[in-house]
Amino acid sequence: MLRVAVTGGIGSGKSTVSARLARQGAVVVDSDRLAREVVAVGSPGLAAVVQRFGPSMLTSDGALDRAALAAVVFSDPDARRALEGITHPRVRARFDELAAAAPVDAVVVNDIPLLVALPVAAGFHLVIGVGADAELRVRRLIARGLAEADARARIAAQIDDDTRRPLTDVWLDNDGAADDLADRVDRLWSERVQPFEELLLRGAAAPRDRPEPVAHDPRWTTDAVRLLARVGRAAGDDTVRLDHIGATAVPGLPADDVLELQLTVSDLAAAERVGPALTRAGFVAMPNRDTDTPHPADADPARWRARWHANADPGRAVDLHVRPADGPGWRWALAMRDRLIADDAEREAHLARQRRWAAEHADDPDGAGVDAAREAWWGAAAEPLARWVERTGWRPGPDSRV
Ligand code: ADP
Description:
Blueprint: E1 2-7, H1 14-24, E2 27-30, H2 31-37, H3 44-53, H4 66-74, H5 77-101, E3 107-111, H6 118-121, E4 126-131, H7 134-143, H8 148-157, H9 161-164, E5 170-173, H10 178-202, E6 213-214, H11 219-235, E7 241-245, E8 255-256, E9 259-265, H12 268-273, H13 275-280, E10 283-285, E11 307-311, E12 318-324, H14 328-342, H15 344-360, H16 368-392
Parallel strand pairs: 1-3, 1-4, 2-3, 4-5, 9-12
Antiparallel strand pairs: 6-8, 7-9, 10-11, 11-12
The structure holds adenosine-5'-diphosphate.
The site of adenosine-5'-diphosphate has 14 residues, from helix 1 and helix 10.
């Protein structure tokens, strides 16, 4: 089952997007409805609200007095956090229950205004953000029957689009016509959501064109942080560290648009143990690769074993390396990245090498020539990197989590 979140500020168009996805066949779970359910009359959630905020939060017939509660939490951030501490976990648990009851090949869409932090985003395979200019949202909300002051207060109480965007995998701008949004949602469904669901069900990674280097994209960093949160959630207690590695992690460097991520685990047994959970989270195990190529100076093959995963999301190419801590391949990945960041000459040399290989093998359709050139370089590259590590006293710094 593919778990998709649709998020955005009030009046951005979340419900509109969700309804369109439902038309395409998604099972939509509306969090507003769940939010009402978890504080319904007689619910443990309502009891918790009364315990925290007092009996004045109840109407004469014992239901939640929404206006009274709203008056308290809108002006008091601590109170709002306390309320969210009561409702959010219950909404999530109820969502999990409903999702578990859906068919295995379903796309379950959760319309979720409360998606405000990475750990929540990490529970979904794909997060779709919907954004629109705040004034436009106010006008649309007024048209929907809300009082202007109420619309403005609600918008002001939520996180803004700049804060929300890094939590999302796809961003839909909804400043234009409703038809245009519907078309883009339909395309998103057929080109990304549905293939993602099918690939996930089959346990297959998304097919890729041979990547071409593109200019460095600053979004690579936020994308990596978000995807690493997903990886970390899937790997749970086996997570030792989570890193964005490879050329996309080097500011300014052109690179193939494939994010390379490294999950560090304690040993090879852990790398195998986390495999199924990573596959379920959309990072599919690649059965044909189980080792880095040993360097001549450290040729014990057992020390180079690792596991690889690739993303089933056709819209975001990811290679996930799962390596035991302190192995030579693990150190190489971190040290090479850090040297490229720190050392201008090495970055130039890296670019020159990439260009030379591309030119020399321009007529080579499957890229085997570049792979062979890289392999030959790799054998000779250990020593210069070891010297750099020695000279600079390099050690792995903090990982890429924020
Ligand atoms: P949300 O669920 O994020 O609060 P809605 O999907 O309910 O937002 O949209 C808010 C209001 O704006 C609704 O009345 C909806 O019909 C309308 N709306 C959404 N998108 C557009 C658009 N592109 N053009 C005009 N009206 C829109």
